[in-house]
């Protein structure tokens, strides 16, 4: 069996495509699926982007996406590899969902718009990748438009994303003068030919070959020679080990909408990207080739049909083989569970899965048993690490707007928080509940879903807060003192951990200065 697991693990590449909204994530994902034969026509992947930031838009899109399951994981085979692309929300207000998804992938492709360069959301996403040393590949998109100079972009990526880069292709011209890319790795010139499947490939071992002048014109040939030589001198050669450790990021240039540069990216990706990696738990590290099954839930998705409140928990298989109709231990609940309809996803098709291997994502129908971070094992008690909550940025008090429905409200809040819709903090002084989010839309979605799925209604009230941070002290006495002195600003999160609610930046830095022995954490796993 273990050789079978090894063979399956070797085949798998599980990753996410991430980007600042509008950089071209959906377009690139779709082109990757086209190459993989998972879809036949462009436009088959519905954009999960919300053009207008309204709740009804969001709910409408969610409904259209058929509970988002069809596109949550997109699997296809390419060159004997099983590729699993994990989808992430396109809206910045749901960034936390993306951060959690990143805990379940083995590598990431970051898309950057050549004209906009590194944007705010790109920085945050890559920061999350760096926390786990996730290998990152970069695709600089929209070369058919005028954008920043290639060298400047690489500098920007190194500086803002703190990634060491290694360009594997280099553009010739840009915008209306975009001629194509030179593949430094394969020593091939790919001429831009919009409308063709791959562009027009010419092997070009030596850039001094006069054929280059004929292909792109003397001026561009000269420019490419100069730039490519400089790039090869300045940047390190590709080193797979360094890439796998998250220390070196290959960079490709192209134009996703024109299908250009995508094949180079995919071909390189399947060659070098990591196979399913190990995971950390509080008790021990898990290796994918272990014979016994382990997995954890990284995302929970509600069924949008209000008549069925069941949800789908997305579980990443970490080791061994997951089998249908087999008893597994739900570690947090210390309860045996088996799954009769576990689901896998092949592009738009949903299928019941009999067996799943490390790197695979399985959808488990759930009536409220799971929350994010829950582990399943064959019996061992393992608590998965590294699925943090981040300190939210927006805060509101949440109040019950219909006293007849307080039970429904409590249940709804409880389940939706488990799903990761937002975070809740309960003030220890007066039990008032505060909802914390990354974006405004999360408040609206929470309110909408409480009403439509639980029949409860809530109202928000403003609260002046700058940050919520988890606190910890080595000595019990110090913590007690802090909790006493700051009693008005202390809350507990859903797990019962203490959180300091700082009203302003100044209050936070004063507290940090006054209590040097208290640790203030901006994410929940410390
Ligand atoms: P996202 O998922 O990262 O948010 O981006 P998405 O793929 O939806 O792309 C955002 C916009 O950029 C889309 O245009 C898309 O067509 C365009 N785009 C993607 N790749 C390229 C490229 O290589 N070159 C150029 N010029 N444009 C590109 P849109 O007008 O917002 O949507 P649509 O109406 O074209 O679908």
From TrEMBL:
Pfam families associated with the record: EF-G_D2 (PF22042), GTP_EFTU (PF00009), RF3_C (PF16658)
Gene Ontology biological process terms in this record: regulation of translational termination
Source domain of life: Bacteria
Keyword annotations: Cytoplasm, GTP-binding, Nucleotide-binding, Protein biosynthesis
CDD domains: RF3, RF3_III
Domain Tr-type G residue range list: 10-277
Protein's cellular compartments: Cytoplasm
Function of the molecule: Increases the formation of ribosomal termination complexes and stimulates activities of RF-1 and RF-2. It binds guanine nucleotides and has strong preference for UGA stop codons. It may interact directly with the ribosome. The stimulation of RF-1 and RF-2 is significantly reduced by GTP and GDP, but not by GMP.
Protein name per the record: Peptide chain release factor 3
Originating species: Saprospira grandis (strain Lewin)
């Amino acid at each position: 069996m273990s050789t079978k697991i090894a063979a399956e693990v070797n085949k798998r590449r599980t990753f996410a495509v991430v980007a600042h909204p509008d950089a071209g994530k959906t377009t690139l994902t779709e082109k990757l699926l086209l190459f993989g034969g998972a879809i036949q026509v462009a436009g088959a992947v519905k954009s999960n982007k919300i053009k207008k930031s309204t709740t009804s838009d969001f709910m409408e899109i969610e409904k259209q996406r058929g509970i988002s399951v069809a596109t949550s994981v997109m699997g296809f085979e390419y060159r004997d590899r099983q590729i699993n692309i994990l989808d992430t929300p396109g809206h910045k207000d749901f960034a936390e969902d993306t951060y959690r998804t990143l805990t379940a992938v083995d590598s990431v492709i970051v898309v950057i718009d050549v004209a906009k360069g590194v944007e705010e959301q790109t920085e945050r996403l890559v920061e999350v990748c760096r926390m786990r040393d996730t290998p990152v590949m970069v695709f600089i998109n929209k070369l058919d438009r005028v954008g920043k100079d290639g060298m400047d972009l690489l500098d920007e990526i190194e500086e803002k994303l703190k990634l060491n880069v290694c360009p594997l292709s280099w553009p010739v011209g840009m915008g209306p003068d975009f001629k194509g890319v030179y593949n430094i790795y394969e020593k091939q010139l790919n001429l831009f030919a919009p409308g063709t499947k791959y562009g027009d490939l010419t092997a070009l071992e030596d850039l001094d070959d006069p054929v280059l002048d004929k292909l792109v014109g003397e001026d561009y040939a000269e420019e490419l020679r100069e730039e490519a030589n400089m790039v090869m001198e300045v940047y390190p050669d590709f080193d797979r080990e360094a890439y796998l450790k998250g220390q070196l990021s290959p960079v490709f240039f192209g134009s996703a909408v024109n299908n250009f540069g995508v094949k180079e990216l995919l071909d390189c990706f399947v060659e070098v990207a990591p196979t399913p990696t190990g995971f950390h738990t509080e008790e021990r590290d898990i290796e994918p080739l272990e014979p016994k099954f382990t997995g954890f839930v990284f995302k929970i998705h509600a069924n949008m049909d209000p008549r069925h409140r069941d949800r789908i928990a997305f579980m990443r298989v970490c080791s061994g083989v997951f089998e249908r109709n087999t008893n597994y231990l739900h570690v947090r609940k210390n309860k045996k569970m088996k799954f009769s309809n576990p689901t896998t996803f092949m592009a738009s098709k949903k299928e019941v899965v009999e067996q799943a291997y490390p790197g695979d994502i399985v959808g488990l129908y759930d009536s409220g048993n799971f929350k994010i971070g829950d582990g399943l094992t064959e019996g061992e008690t393992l608590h998965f690490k590294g699925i943090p909550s981040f300190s939210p940025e927006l805060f509101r008090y949440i109040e019950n707007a219909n006293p007849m429905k307080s039970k429904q409200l409590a249940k709804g809040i409880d389940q939706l928080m488990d799903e990761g819709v937002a975070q809740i903090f309960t003030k220890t002084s007066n039990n008032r509940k505060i909802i914390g989010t990354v974006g405004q839309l999360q408040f609206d979605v929470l309110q909408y879903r409480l009403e439509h799925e639980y029949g409860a209604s809530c109202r928000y009230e403003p609260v002046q807060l700058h940050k919520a941070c988890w606190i910890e002290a080595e000595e019990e006495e110090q913590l007690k003192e802090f909790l006493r002195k700051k009693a008005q600003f202390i809350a507990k999160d859903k797990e019962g951990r203490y959180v300091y609610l700082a009203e302003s930046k100044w209050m936070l830095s004063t507290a940090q200065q006054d209590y040097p022995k208290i640790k203030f954490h901006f994410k929940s796993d410390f």
